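Schema walk-through. Below, the input block comes first and the output block second. Nothing else is stored per chain. Lengths vary across the set, and this one has 145 residues.
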Amino acid sequence: MRSKSIHAFKSLTFMFLNFRQLYRNNLSGSIPPALFRHAKLKFLGLENNPFLTGELPDVSGLVSVEIFNIYNCSLTGPAPSFQKTTNLRYLNLANNSLTSFPPELTNLTNLASLNLLNNNITGPLPDLPPSYRQRRTQDYYLRSV
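--- output ---
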């Protein structure tokens, strides 16, 4: 199957959506920072695109995002800060080649699921919001190498 450049999705109408599901589209290249500059975006799914490469851009513009799924890709480098994404409930960055945990997770009081398995992360586990640690039904998938 032929891969498609993710930069093909820069159309103006696409930028006004609040739900972006682009999984299994065989997308290739680095993720354009413009995809992460939309304050009304609630769901972002770029999972299962093994040809997506490079580092994750700054996500601070996604102030309304609740679900952030970018797993089973080929992303590298440090995980970005999710400090301004205070509505975030589900964060899945598993099966990439990220080298660090996202900093500043303690303010994500709505976080219900966090998956960072199968990356190249080293160092101590991050601090998590007190409300997250008290839940019994949450998903908690972290591993430090």
